Amino acid sequence: MTWAVTIVVVEWAHVVAALPYELANQDAVAWLQTLPAASVDLLITDPAYESLEKHRAVGTTTRLKHSKASSNDWFTIFPNARFGELFAEVYRVLKDDTHFYLLCDAETMFVAKPEAERAGFKFWKPLVWDKCTIGMGYHYRARYEFVLFFEKGKRKLNDLGVPDVMAVPRIRGGYPAEKPPEVAEILIKQSSEPGDVVCDPFMGSGSVGVASLRLGRRFIGNDLNAEAVRIASQRLREFGEGRVPEGLPEEVPPPQADLFDEVRLKPDTTYGR
Ligand SMILES: C[S@@+](CC[C@H](N)C(=O)[O-])C[C@H]1O[C@@H](n2cnc3c(N)ncnc32)[C@H](O)[C@@H]1O
Known about the structure:
The chain has 273 residues and is an alpha/beta fold. Helices cover 27% and strands 19% of the residues.
């Protein structure tokens, strides 16, 4: 008698195929390391970059009262010194001919761009998310954030008529530094197809996940903060059953102010003099 042995290779992307989303609660780099190479179609992320901490230390945000509204109580900062290992993993998990979008401020852009290029990405340009109303700062109060547009290999945008400034009103009173899903929706429509896997290793409240599922993509997301993962899993539930980590906190916190919402002080026009 002869025995035929069939080896079934189950790729990670196939495992999630039946599920609209899968969430994790780990360090971003450690989590990305668990994903197979070339398993992601698009990565959009908004890390807790270091300059948020700096603003807190030297300027505006020192005036934030230490409350749950401060990101201090919510998330730890991801140091710029770790961008090298982060971008190496982002590059590895992305398929060939894909896009990577990184939300950050101007200061972080100058650090992140060369690190991402070292990892192998081509940098195209910063896109601008116009939040439509002013936020933090003492002079030229911040009204925009950058979205750095990177490419692995070559991938055409789906619509060449979309401008590089995206005017979408900011979210108030949500998770600290929560982004409106409509920003991610523009990027997802441009750089993926229905059924694709969209990834966010610093997902916070899961806005990229909401945008992905609204557009018929699958989503894999992660955050170090268990509370963030719980909020994200609650938001994504309306799109069906997904895989979420066990033991997430059950408490529903009261609505939080945005990280910078409490900066309603009169602008300081002395410019530090
Ligand atoms: C700016 S917030 C993301 C907000 C998100 N875009 C939203 O719309 O809610 C950054 C997130 O990074 C998370 N974070 C910080 N360090 C991390 C790390 N080492 N690994 C994974 N997540 C981390 C924080 O917990 C925080 O939720």
